Amino acid sequence: MIENLTGTVEITDLDKWYGDFHALRRISLSVADGERIVICGPSGSGKSTLIRCVNQLETHQKGKVSVGGLELKPGAGNLAPIRRQIGMVFQQFNLFPHLSVLGNCTLALTRAKKMPRTEAEALAMENLEKVRIPDQARKYPAQLSGGQQQRVAIARALCMQPKVMLFDEPTSALDPEMIKEVLDVMSALAKDGMTMICVTHEMGFAREVADRIVFMDEGMVIEEATPDVFFSNPRNDRTKKFLSQILH
Amino acid sequence: MSLLEIIAGIFEGFRVTATVTALGLLYAIPFAFVAGVLQHFLPGVRRVLVTTVIEFWRSSPVIVLLFVFYYSLPAFGVRMSAMTVASLVLGLNIGGYGSQAVRAALQALPHGQVEAGLALGLQRWTILLLIELPQALRSMVPTFMNQLIQLIKGTALVSLITLTDMTYRAKELAQVEYNPVGIYSGLLIAYLIICYPVTVLGRSIEQRASYAESKHREF
Ligand SMILES: Nc1ncnc2c1ncn2[C@@H]1O[C@H](COP(=O)(O)OP(=O)(O)OP(=O)(O)O)[C@@H](O)[C@H]1O
Ligand SMILES: [Mg+2]
Question: What pTM does this model have?
């Protein structure tokens, strides 16, 4: 049963091209159930591409991606049920502007999971409490601040009760004073034991939350280490250069 | 004949004008949506095919289409009533324009919402129906109201294939009584009487939609 998937992610020898451009080069990464991974690297290094291959928003040409032991085959017709097990949070929030906060949270529950409305709304409220905005449930996205919108986006993903959560630079589009409220929600989620793959340049968050940090450059995984080792003793020169630029 | 009598006489053709408009919409609306959505989605050759069909209906002169369908097709064994030809031709012509509004509105939406829907495990057509089209509809309202008025005005041509609409009635009256100024002014007024309320209605729907939009939209 797809509902009983574990939160493991297995990426094996992944290659991805955009036309002639080799965006991901033989990437392998395994993420254990409950593990928290932070992916970082310079702009254009393929972080988004990699994380988007996990739920097949991008299709790869070679290699294998599986979640909970189930392979996601590029272009397969039955992706939707597996995607319901994989939550994703985007840099630009991507809320549905014509639906209220509650509507955003319940749409996929009632449509994809066929959950009765009252049950869906109860689940939505539960997750809106988790992200600390139950009082905004009746508002529309445009009436919320960026930080609130991103927390709604997290709640919307959590409503599907995913086994894995993917975050693609969730705080990069936020004003500085709103970054913390989103990171706090993400830290709480990590404490609950959610499997998380986060693309982020918030090194404080990485240090505190990550089990492992993956550094990418030019479509390759350059270095993989625990936060301690990564920050105090990076092996690769490119990692060192990146860290010196990002940590002032 | 007083102007009022003339207008009353002309309005004997109102039922036909209204019927052509209503039936025309029955062709126009589904055609606009299906063609616009297909043009938005389909790749390659199939998209070119859809575009060709749209362009045929959009770019041919309506009056020529009316003549071809009403007078020429029977030679090939295709026989349709004047009412069917009128509503089909006018409807698909306006629907062709409408399809471009549908496609443009769909293309204008930020793609991130589709991705968010897919990531939630929604099927592509559910995303179209529940996320893209409801937003596209709002931005299409002004264009659609304009095209409804185009359709009403376009019905004046159906008198040329024997339908007794308002224009046909005016021509009948003109044969009975020599008063071109009174009769054709009356005809103009008759169309204004119909189109003006539609314009007003359109504007109020537009305002309501753009109010809702300002409440919903952020970018
Ligand atoms: N749809 C696309 N078509 C062509 N090239 C693309 C496409 N998407 C990404 N690329 C290219 O692939 C490379 C990796 O892009 P990606 O978005 O994964 O980088 P990133 O590490 O997420 O960068 P950033 O930190 O700026 O978000 C870049 O060079 C980018 O230009
Ligand atoms: Mg990116």
Answer: 0.89
In terms of residue numbers, what domain contains B191? 3-215
Q: How do residues A143-174 score in pLDDT, each as one tens digit?
A: 999 999 999 999 999 999 999 999 999 999 99
The residue nearest atom 30 of ligand 1, judged by CA position, is: A44
Q: How many CB atoms lie within 10 A of CB B129?
A: 14
User: Among all residues of chain A, which has the CA nearest to that of B113?
Assistant: A94
Candidates B120, B125, B138: best to mutate against A (most CBs of A within 10 A) is: B120
Number of domains into which chain B is organized: 1
pLDDT per position as a tens digit, B81-102: 999 999 999 999 999 999 999 9
- For position B103, which CATH number holds? 1.10.3720.10
ipTM over 0.90: yes
Residue B112 vs residues A96, A141, B132, B211: alpha-carbon distances, Å: 10, 14, 11, 23
Using the mean position of ligand 2's atoms as its centre, give its distance from the Cα of residue A112 in Å: 28
Determine which of A5, A72, A98 to mutate to test the interface with B (most B C-beta atoms within 10 Å).
Answer: A98
Instruction: Give the count of beta carbons closer than 10 Å to the beta carbon of residue B118.
Output: 19
Q: Collapse the DSSP code of B27 into the 3-class scheme (helix H, G, I; strand E, B; otherwise coil) and give the result.
A: helix
